[in-house]
Automatic annotation (TrEMBL):
Coiled coil: none annotated. Keywords: Calcium, Cell adhesion, Cell membrane, Glycoprotein, Membrane, Phosphoprotein, Repeat, Signal, Transmembrane, Transmembrane helix. This is Cadherin domain-containing protein. One of its GO terms (cellular component) is plasma membrane. Residues 693-713 have a biased composition (Polar residues). SMART domains: CA. Residues 603-613 have a biased composition (Basic residues). It is found in: Cell membrane. Residues 1-86, 95-205, 206-311, 312-414, 435-533 form the Cadherin domain. It comes from Cirrhinus mrigala.
Amino acid sequence: VKANDSDMGPNGEVTYSLHQASPVVQRLLSIDRNTGTIFVKGLVDREDISMLKFYVQAKDNGPQSKSSKALVTITVKDQNDNAPSIRIRGIGLVTHEDGVANISEDMPVGTAVALVEVSDRDEGENAVVTCVVAGDVPFQLRSASETGSDRKRKYFLQTTMLLDYERIKDYRIEIVAVDSGNPALSSTNSLKVQVTDMNDNSPVFSPSLYEVEFAEENQPGDKVLDVVATDADSGTNAELTYSITGGSIPEGLFEINPNTGEVRVMSQLDREQVDHYQFLVAAADKGVPSLRGTATVVVKVLDRNDNDPKFMLNGYSFSVQENMPPLSPVGMVTVTDYDEGDNAHVQLSVEPDNGKFMIQNGTFTILSTISFDREKESTYSFRLKAVDGGDPPRSSYVGITINVLDENDNAPYVTKPSNSSYKFLDPRTSPETHVERVEAEDMDIGLNSELDFSIVGGNPHGLFRISSEGEITLAKEFTPKHIGLHRLVVKVKDKGTPPRHTTALVHIYVNETIGNVSHVEGLVGHSLYTPLEMDIAGDPDYSRDGQSNIVFAVLGGFCGVVLIIAVAMIIRHVVLKENKSGYQAGKKETKDLYAPKPGPKSNKNKKAKKSKAPKPANPSEEDEGGSLQKGLKFNLMNDSVTDSPRIHLPLNYPPGSPDLGRHYRSNSPLPSIQLQPQSPSASKKHQAVQDLPATNTFVGTGDNNSTGSDQYSDYSYKANSSKYSTKQVGDNFESMAGYHSTEYQSPG
């Protein structure tokens, strides 16, 4: 190859190299770096590689060298260096063994003895091959295909005349193949053809199928049957030899006399292992080659009752759900008897038969005649007896275990604490302190007995929490309003499907001391009859701060009432002076003394409507009083409590009466008060001011939780009305009132 570079000096000097050449090219070729001449450096064989393709790279020697590539293709020309190849194979009915073809003398003319394949690795004229049979033999080659290529052709080697074994017993056939090269190359191969004597009659059995019945547990060597075959040939071709061939029988189990055809069994047969045997017997003549005939022998083994019934398992264990109805299937067993007929007919029975289980023969299903209760009996054990119908019968036993699975049919029950017990707790107890532990059990097992604990009621302030194991701890610090009895409603639920649960009551009495045990037990007793929907969580009436200020609240209220009366008297005096008429007790007034005065523009309208009743109090205020009175159906008066003055105002006023409650709420810092019907001022209009007792000592009860007049409608009992039933509040109030006055009264 030649490359030109127009540059001068090193920039124009060109070097050549094989560019990315394959390993074959690198092995066979090389190139001169300076001249670009390509040389052969290895032996080139066209039969291996007929063409080489590669790139030559020309590269200058400049500082920034430039290169160019050219594709080079080298075609290898053939040379007649391979002689033809001859391969001889067997074909058709002619067998080939160790390079010898055996052909019977009765074969017709043109019988193919072998298939000859001729090929040449060269090409062109060098591969054109001529193939012939050398010598004077009764065989010739015939082309096997008209479309074969010159390089590879197939021929049949066939007979040209009838063969005679008595004249010539064998032939040596030589095949010569010559190619068309210059000089020509040739090769030879030979085949020995052996002519065999004609033995055209095979031995024949009559009948061709032998069937015989033979009992098991025989003695070795007992005769089974005789087989007989005949041959139409004569001489040695008719002499027969018997043998057992084919079939899937153990070697040596059956033997046949080679001369007589008598068949004997050499081992004891067992029908349960093999119930029949099938094999071939052959009769071969003594001709060359030998011909033989075959027959099929079937030996059917008869049964004897030599096997006990057999259960598939050595023991059965079944699991069933409790509470299943009677006659429900419990399990199924499998029993077999390797015998047959009546010897294999098996009947099952329960032993001992206590009437709890029965067996359904035919399906071998175990049925229960009872309904299971795992908590009473969790396991049943008995035996099944299997008896076959043989003579004499044979039997066997198997153990059965019935495990009753648990069903979540038992709710948990609480063992600790008792619903009627209580736990004393000091108000100064710090959070995270252990309070109580709820312990419960479940008669079920597994997940059905795993329990979860939760507080579902009686914990509105979130003071307590319970762990999943039932441990109750204090979650928050106590405040004065938490003093008193707490009833926690604890739900104990199992993890069954569906789950079952029970409810436990945990009473916690929060106080510094227990001064009156009977009183606390009374509170707990009332709690047991209080609906669970109502929370019992501390003192519904008092707080520690309220009790410390009760005396001051009463005194302040008393002074406020005196001040209001004085103001009312002054207003009355001014009004009477303006009207120039004196006040008469019991006389119906034309306007409400305590109603807001109308503006100047509406004064005429007021006079026109002076016969109408004054506007009632705010409906929301009346509703609050009404709902409070409705929720508390008991008298808040307690004669035994004398620690503070008590004032009762009616919650519902007659039409036209002065709204003292509203007046006090809007103008007085006194605690909320309620007038009772026994007050001399509650029966007549306006006399609530005029006929007050001279000493201003009202009979009633003050709200120790009130710190201002706006709390009148938010009375503490109303705030807790949803926590207690009416009965409980009525029953407990008197004892709790006395209890508060003794246990929680501040030193002041």
